[in-house]
Amino acid sequence: MAPFPEIKSTHSLVAKHVTEEKWNKLGDHKTATSGFTLGQAIACAVEFDDQHCGIYAGDADSYKDFAEVFDPIIQEYHGISADSTHTSDMDASKIVGNIDEDVPVKSTRIRVGRSIEGFGLSPGITKEQRLEVENLMKNAFGKLTDELAGEYYPLLGMEETVRQKLVDDHFLFMSGDKNLISAGMERDWPEGRGIFHNAEKTFLVWVNEEDQLRIISMQQGGDVKGVFERLAKGIKAVQDSVKAESDKDFLLDEKYGFLHSCPTNLGTGMRASVHVDLPGWTKEGLPALKKRCEELQLQPRGTRGESGGQTGITYDISNKHRLGYSEVELVQKMIDGVNTLWKEDKELVAKQEAA
User: Fold this and answer.
1) Which end of the chain lies in a sparser environment, N or C, as judged by fewer CB atoms within 10 Å?
2) For the segment 117-161, what is each residue's pLDDT rounded down to a tens digit?
3) Annotated catalytic residue, options 210, 284, 327, 329
């Protein structure tokens, strides 16, 4: 038995829920799908002192085999009860309305993660499994038609001109993220990884990054419903192709929804976001905007990304929750919330100009 590790992220959920007692019980166990251990799962929280969650799953088995650790962490992070279940709903026809015409939305992007049965998730996946996922996806991409049809670009052996083009389009994912390295997600880099996009660059799939699949629908402007429709269509096309070829489906758990490597993404794994100009809220200040978004169950970010600060008056506004709500519910909250923020923004500007 490996000794109980020193957890550097003392304020993380791992530090709270991985006790010596649980470690002694689970520390030697290896999962069936990819031989994953609890030590590997919590590597980030042990190695770094800045983790909030601090745990990743190496395969679907991890969530079951290490449930004594994962369950309380997931319940606390997502604010769900021990007996809650998750319902998925990708029916775009149920969405009411859309972003209002006058809202200055620059672009819309909705992403989800998906994992295929029988293969490890990125932290635990074996080299052979990773290549098998890539091959399944290459065949699936070849069968996509109409607006979804496009090309797959493997990272291994990628020509510089192609690489630069993908960088310019902000499509390329990079190596070097300390959390992904510590969690084992960059083993055998860049083999088995790649990017697919359609001709219009409105439908993308990342293969074998933090999740086996990150499926993304995006376009300029504020047609959130249209972006969601394309996403639903794309997910179904990929799912049907993988199933026809391998008889494997996406990993879907009745309690935790679609399984991802990071427990914070469980449930829908969906982040529906718009880039929108909010001059009134900018003047009001970020703390005020954060508080209002919290009330609307939204999350504001600077448009340079998670911790990249803020550029001007443009914000990235997305759904806050992943688990416990369906995809339709979360997209609806985002649409309604952004419309509300803009209505209030106009009122703030009028008030600020009158002052």
Assistant:
1) C
2) 999 999 999 999 999 999 999 999 999 999 999 999 999 999 999
3) 210
Catalytic, out of 109, 262, 322, 327: 262
**Is 303 among the residues known to form the active site?**
no
Whether residue 53 lies in the annotated active site = no
- Which residue of the set 109, 111, 193, 322 is catalytic? 111
**In the annotation, is 111 catalytic?**
yes
Using one digit for the tens of pLDDT, what is the confidence trace for 237-252?
999 999 999 999 999 9
Active-site residue 44, yes or no? Answer: no
* Reported pTM: 0.93
State the catalytic residue, choosing from 114, 130, 230, 271.
271
**285/141 Cα distance (integer angstroms):** 44
Catalytic option among 109, 193, 214, 322: 214
With a CB cutoff of 8 Å and minimum separation 6, the contacts of 326 are 87, 88, 89, 268
Strands 298-302 and 314-319: antiparallel
Residue from 301, 314, 322, 327 carrying the catalytic annotation: 301
| 145 among known catalytic residues | no
Question: What is the arrangement of strands in the sheet containing 194-198, beginning at the earlier edge strand?
Answer: 150-154, 194-198, 203-207, 213-220, 105-114, 271-277, 314-319, 298-302
